[in-house]
Amino acid sequence: FEHHIFVCTNERDLSDARGCCSARGGEAVLEAFRKELTERGLKGRVRANKAGCLDQCARGPAVVIYPEGVWYDHVKPEDVPGIVARLKV
Fold first, then answer.
1. Using alpha carbons only, how large is the chain's radius of gyration in Å?
2. pTM (2 d.p.)
């Protein structure tokens, strides 16, 4: 793969003050990436993966793209097309 997109889907106890990416929509963001990559014909070149905790709980859902090491926070499904458009593929 030319790029790996890691989307935090970590779940924390609801009593944790930091919150968690799962409760903030991490799974929906991951599915939006997978759909967008398929629609753009990038499946096989770019992979969207579930990630455990990326240690950015209060800023979630968090996304990191490698090999660039670019981070995004507070990502929503509607942000995904713009993020994918920035990839150099």
1. 13
2. 0.93
